[in-house]
């Protein structure tokens, strides 16, 4: 699975890239039909409590899956976003099983 990282109003972080790749590789091992992922990290300066946004879009056969989360830390946002994507992938896998 190929992973593309995009940073919007945020400095590039190799440790954040490695953390996200590790989490996404677990998904890739569990769901072999994944093709790629686009990960966007954003910083919302208008949000005082949170403001660290992680968007992940997964490419796979059929419609793409997308999830986003807004947390106080990027690592927490990554975990929350991947958790949301995993729920969507479980539903999608059930569809593949019926065919």
UniProtKB/TrEMBL annotation:
Pfam families referenced in this protein's UniProt entry, alphabetically: Ribosomal_S30AE
InterPro entries found in the cross-reference section: RHF-like, RHF/RaiA
Signal peptide: none
Coiled-coil portions: none
Designated name of the protein: Ribosome-associated translation inhibitor RaiA
Organism: Psychroserpens ponticola
